[in-house]
Design brief:
70% helix; 2 domains; mainly alpha; two-stranded antiparallel sheet
């Protein structure tokens, strides 16, 4: 009886197994777990960004928009390296006056453009993952070169801050602060990578280039501001008589231009008929007015635009870093493994991390 029951139960098990096998063979395979694979756009986008090292679409999108904008902006302004030619033809007459007549400012603008334009082009490749993965030595050399170029370019910017776009105190302040923020971020990024603290290196480099990207977005804000200033017609700025005279004479018949200048701005002439080059004359900001008025219209909005965009970029950089905390944690584990392999005392905490100063010490995930 017992034997029969065992055989019956055994036969039943075999029957159930066969039924399951036949069912599984006749059932079509399950669809892929990743729903995005059904999206035509995502499938084709991956064919673009996977070969250059990106594994996530949002990373590629931010790189393409931000670094692509920097590449395009700097490539378009590579022609400005011709200071005597293209740059002088494109810049405001007031700036041309200072850059052409005073060696300090001429040296400063030359250094600034000669450094930041190539750096903005090179950074496009610096944030490309495939170079880090397959040609790390190129990533390092390119990184050192970019840091050096930006630091020297910042020195050039400080030299011209007093005269750039009017050189008002708001303009000087934002130039000094922007130079300080970018220099600090680049140096901290360099320090952390030397300590193999990769996630902190990533953070500080993203911050540095977010700040440097201000020069692009502020152009749009300047145009909007200039339009508003022109419509309101109630903004004025002091301009030296030397700048005004230069605007009249530059490229014109000297005698006729000099006569026109003296007739329009008699307050610039003293009792002996000499020009008071350092005297300031109030000029209205009108982008559709005379040349000197149009220049003032754009100069008035420069400092404001720089401040607005600097705050905007700084906030957006922190938002992006906060939203990509998983990538930060992943890179910290990579840092931990590399520092541990070197035999360092505090693996995962050798760089500038918050828990080195205050907070709960970080613990690698596998030992939690």
């Amino acid at each position: 009886m017992g034997t029969k029951n065992q055989n019956t139960s055994g036969g039943g098990f075999e029957l159930q197994s066969q039924d399951r096998s036949s069912i599984s063979k006749n059932t079509p395979p399950s669809p892929p777990l990743v729903a995005d694979d059904a999206n035509f756009f995502v499938r084709n986008a991956r064919k673009v960004y996977h070969p250059i090292g990106f594994r996530k679409g949002y990373n590629f999108s931010f790189w393409f928009i931000c670094c692509g904008a920097m590449l395009g902006f700097c490539a378009a302004r590579a022609m400005f390296l011709d200071i005597e030619g293209v740059f002088f033809e494109s810049t405001l007459l007031a700036e041309k006056y200072w850059y052409s007549n005073f060696s300090l400012y001429r040296i400063g603008i030359t250094i600034h453009l000669a450094c930041v334009v190539p750096a903005g082009i090179l950074v496009f490749f610096q944030f490309m993952p495939v170079i880090r993965y397959k040609a790390l030595y190129l990533h390092r050399i390119n990184g050192y070169l970019i840091i050096l170029l930006i630091l020297i370019g910042n020195a050039g910017a400080l030299m011209i801050a007093r005269r750039a776009f009017g050189g008002g105190v708001e303009t000087q302040a934002v130039v000094y602060i922007l130079a300080t923020m970018t220099t600090t971020s680049l140096l901290l990024g360099y320090f952390n990578i030397k300590k193999l603290q990769i996630e902190q290196h990533r953070k500080w480099m993203i911050r540095a280039w977010a700040y440097l990207g201000v020069i692009i977005t502020m152009r749009f804000v300047m145009l909007i501001a200039a339009t508003i200033i022109n419509q309101m017609g109630s903004y004025w700025m002091g301009v030296t008589c030397g700048e005004l005279e230069f605007g009249f004479i530059d490229g014109n018949n000297t005698i006729a231009a000099e006569t026109a200048f003296r007739a329009r701005y008699p307050d610039c002439i003293d009792s002996k008929g000499m020009i008071l080059s350092d005297k300031n004359i109030a000029i209205q900001g009108l982008t559709d007015g005379r040349v000197e008025e149009a220049g003032v219209g754009y100069k008035l909005g420069f400092g404001m635009a720089a401040w607005v965009c600097l705050v905007l970029h700084a906030v957006l950089a922190e938002v992006y870093l906060a939203l990509t905390s998983r990538e930060t944690e992943r890179l910290r584990m990579v840092s931990y493994e590399k520092q541990k392999a070197r035999g360092w005392a505090n693996p995962g905490r050798e760089g500038l991390t918050a828990d080195r100063i205050d907070g709960v010490p970080w613990v690698p995930r596998q030992t939690e």
